Amino acid sequence: MKLIRDKVPAFIKKAGKTPILRIAKDTEIYQLLLKKLDEEVTEYQMSRNPEELADIIEACYALAKTHKIPAAKLEQMRKKKAKERGAFDKRIVWMGNQ
Fold first, then answer.
1. What is the pLDDT of residue 19?
2. Which whole number is the average pLDDT over 56-76?
3. d(CA 29, CA 35)
4. What percent of the chain lies above the pLDDT cut of 90?
5. How far is CA 60 from CA 33, 67, 90, 91, in A?
6. Nearest alpha-carbon partner for 58 in 77, 39, 45
7. What φ, ψ does residue 42 adopt, rounded to 5°?
8. pLDDT score recorded for residue 49
9. What is the DSSP track for 36-79?
10. Is 32 helix (H, G, I), strand (E, B) or coil?
11. What is the pLDDT of residue 4?
12. What SS3 class is residue 81?
């Protein structure tokens, strides 16, 4: 059992297969999305394919919706945090404390 994108069932049917589907319950969608995020991160780590980053973002947007946060608000939050704490542009690595 795994969460799939909305249009995937049509692709499965077009391939001549009959997908077994159901709609996720409100009580389980958060956990399914966490699993999907882990899956997408792992796929990116294994393949290094930048297209997988789009899947990670999509999973993050869906998780944000479970918190009633639209994608635009999530982006605002990201920008605010980058302004306050910085991004990763300078590639600084913390080596610990002395």
1. 93
2. 97
3. 10
4. 98
5. 8, 11, 24, 23
6. 39
7. -60, -45
8. 98
9. HHHHHHHHHHHH--THHHHHHHHHHHHHHHHTT--HHHHHHHHH
10. helix
11. 97
12. helix
Q: Please, which residues have CB within 8 angstroms of residue 43's CB and are 6 or more apart in sequence? A: 49, 52, 55
Residue-wise burial string across 43-52, b where 16 or more C-beta atoms lie within 10 A, e elsewhere: ebeeeeeeeb
Type of residue numbered 95? M
Site of tokens 């958060």? 30
pLDDT at position 61, please? 98
Per-residue pLDDT tens digits for 16-37: 999 999 999 999 999 999 999 9
Residue 95, token pair as written in the block: 């080596």
At a CB cut-off of 8 Å and minimum separation 6, what does 3 contact? Answer: 24, 29, 32, 33, 35, 36
**pTM of the entire predicted model:** 0.89
